[in-house]
Amino acid sequence: MTEAAAQGQTLRQLGPTVYLPSAVYSTGIGAVAPVIVLTATGLGASPAAAAVVAGLLGLGQISGSLPAGMLISRAGERRTMLTASAFAVPALLACMFAPSILLLGAAVALLGVCGSAWSLSRHAYLTEAVRPELRARAMSTLGGVGRIGTFTGPFLGAAAMHAAGLDGAYLVAIAGVGLATAVLIFLPPVPHDRAVPPGAERPTLRQVLRANQRTLRTLGLAVLLVGALRASRQTILPLWGVALDLSPATIGLIYGVSGGIDMLLFYPAGKLMDRYGRRAAAVPAMALLGIAHALLPLAGGVTGLTAVALLMGVGNGLSAGLVMTLGADASPSAGRAEFLGAWRLCSDVGQGGGPLLIGAITAAASLATAAVTVGGSGLLAAYLLHRWIKPMRGTADPAPPSHPVR
């Protein structure tokens, strides 16, 4: 590790090398996030089946979390992201030209694997690169650049869809991934972006999981619900828009406005966590997301759907960087990348399960029932986070204690 890295970098120093490529990548993916369900319905899928297809993005993230952690440990963060980009572009092309729901689902799942590798690479680096008293702000800023992508991507996608239909959104995504890759290639590598030296002692994945099993069983369960709430928001808003017979461009704009609230709140959320503890943002964020889902059945038009989307944006914005911050707080020094892969797996299981839950309940009952059920999960997440996040002591809230790897 370099001297600068050891002392801890400031957010300004991290901007060009860490946040810029992440912002560009997330902008591209943000353009297609609300379009996946529309592509599926255009291929003849029912609303329930379209929710399942969207859920495959989360399932791809699930399958990619642990392998990404091991790859980062062996190949380094930059190579891991470049590899992910090399697979993301073909996945987006497959989404564009998919002749069937089956091929579309496979492409969406691969896109999720690539996104998992990108996110975990940045998470692992920031965990080591910033001072503890800046940790939540660094993580929330990383989450914030994702919110910027969520905000700008759908607007760019909506503009492109006016000219080229649904394919326009995928073209925006391909351009975003390509530009992010170019930034990675031409900018200098970040400090200590390297694999663990081949001769160094490295704990196995099994050892890391065993040593941190209590943290993963307790706080990890709450993080799973956080992931479910976030992913269900991305799926249920477009589906409700389809049920209201709104145009794809209108749905994309509503989705983008909700992302705008995220963008405004990411830094205040990090500052709130650094100053008052992780609970101060985590509990109200999940409560607001749960209430917003429960109110969705009352949205009978553009105005109502926009109001619910704004409330979801507030809740999601307050949780910017929350999962990454809690994971960084709990991560051990030995086997950190592997632990963070397992930590993200908890969140990714929720992200994959949220849309699948919506699809299952919609098929068995109705979309309104699914919204109310997810709303209840949000309140449960708020309770579990309040229980398992310890009150602030010093600069951070300690997670449930884990035993060192032996």
UniProtKB/TrEMBL annotation:
<dbReference type="InterPro" id="IPR050171">
    <property type="entry name" value="MFS_Transporters"/>
</dbReference>
<dbReference type="Pfam" id="PF07690">
    <property type="entry name" value="MFS_1"/>
</dbReference>
<feature type="transmembrane region" description="Helical">
    <location>
        <begin position="252"/>
        <end position="269"/>
    </location>
</feature>
<feature type="transmembrane region" description="Helical">
    <location>
        <begin position="49"/>
        <end position="72"/>
    </location>
</feature>
<dbReference type="InterPro" id="IPR020846">
    <property type="entry name" value="MFS_dom"/>
</dbReference>
<keyword id="KW-0472">Membrane</keyword>
<feature type="transmembrane region" description="Helical">
    <location>
        <begin position="281"/>
        <end position="314"/>
    </location>
</feature>
<protein>
    <submittedName>
        <fullName>Predicted arabinose efflux permease, MFS family</fullName>
    </submittedName>
</protein>
<dbReference type="GO" id="GO:0022857">
    <property type="term" value="F:transmembrane transporter activity"/>
</dbReference>
<feature type="transmembrane region" description="Helical">
    <location>
        <begin position="168"/>
        <end position="187"/>
    </location>
</feature>
<keyword id="KW-0813">Transport</keyword>
<keyword id="KW-0812">Transmembrane</keyword>
<dbReference type="InterPro" id="IPR005829">
    <property type="entry name" value="Sugar_transporter_CS"/>
</dbReference>
<feature type="domain" description="Major facilitator superfamily (MFS) profile">
    <location>
        <begin position="14"/>
        <end position="393"/>
    </location>
</feature>
<dbReference type="InterPro" id="IPR011701">
    <property type="entry name" value="MFS"/>
</dbReference>
<keyword id="KW-1003">Cell membrane</keyword>
<feature type="transmembrane region" description="Helical">
    <location>
        <begin position="84"/>
        <end position="111"/>
    </location>
</feature>
<feature type="transmembrane region" description="Helical">
    <location>
        <begin position="18"/>
        <end position="43"/>
    </location>
</feature>
<keyword id="KW-1133">Transmembrane helix</keyword>
<dbReference type="InterPro" id="IPR036259">
    <property type="entry name" value="MFS_trans_sf"/>
</dbReference>
<dbReference type="GO" id="GO:0005886">
    <property type="term" value="C:plasma membrane"/>
</dbReference>
<feature type="transmembrane region" description="Helical">
    <location>
        <begin position="357"/>
        <end position="385"/>
    </location>
</feature>
